Amino acid sequence: MPVFPAGQVWLAGAGPGDPGLLTLHAVNALNQADIVIYDALVGEAILGCARPGAVLEYAGKRGGKPSPKQRDISLRLIELARQGKRVLRLKGGDPFVFGRGAEEALSLRDAGIAFRVIPGISAGIGGLAYAGIPLTHRDTNSCVTFLTGHNAAGEVPDSVDWAAMVRASPVLVIYMAIKHLDLLVAKLRHAGLPAERPAALVSHATLPQMRVLTATLGSIVARAQTAQVAPPALFVVGEVVDLHAVFGASDLQATLQSLPLTGPVPSCQQAS
């Protein structure tokens, strides 16, 4: 495992939530960092891998709630690195998948701060796998599209060519979809997707409280409101959703609920 030099910033993905999905490089970084600047979706079990004495500093963003400005977060990373700290910027999922990791990396480059990127398992991959929804299946699709449910301003992206996307991709995975679910569904329907197309919401993916709600595109909004599906949640549309029932989601849920997520990851301090 690599040594974490003083004065560097490592941008690491913590995966979708289950600490077992951390990479060895991420655990190694947690074992060595002087300070961990972490996001809202990084849980206590993952933070339990930080070495004794490490400072844990929250810098999470949640829609509709007061949040640190991105510029302030980037400046904080630069400030700490210039103090000679080993700075770990820990993000849910993968730092380069809708995680603003690229913005922070550019700021570090411009400031002359050395940095390393540690990929993580994105929720759109790991979360759907835990939900028993495969991203691809040769009988249904050979293409999948990922997109975000809101842009930097918190609104549905206006730069997406929805009609072209619907024609090109039989499976769509939309991150951060709950806030504008009704508008997202309306755009997909207007772009040509039929109301009967299978759809699902996966809330708190890979965690014990994970919920999977399956429906059709035409009924998913009403079903989500009735079930009070809470963010963070993934919205997936496509025939692969039907495989959720085949892969025994109830067994997966039982397995997740048995995970010891109330303390540090077992033996995580030995990973370095």
Structural write-up:
This protein has 272 residues and is an alpha/beta fold. 30% of the residues lie in helices and 17% in strands. The protein folds into 2 domains: 113 residues, 3-Layer(aba) Sandwich (Cobalt-precorrin-4 Transmethylase, domain 1); 132 residues, Methyltransferase, Cobalt-precorrin-4 Transmethylase, Domain 2, CATH 3.30.950.10. Helix 6 links the parallel strand 6 and strand 7. Helix 3 packs across helix 4. One of its GO terms (molecular function) is uroporphyrin-III C-methyltransferase activity. Belongs to the precorrin methyltransferase family. This is uroporphyrinogen-III C-methyltransferase.
Radius of gyration: 19 Å
Q: What is the H/E string?
A: EHEHEHEHEHEHEHEEHEHH
Strand elements, count: 10
CATH fold annotation of the largest domain: Methyltransferase, Cobalt-precorrin-4 Transmethylase, Domain 2
The helix content is 25-40%
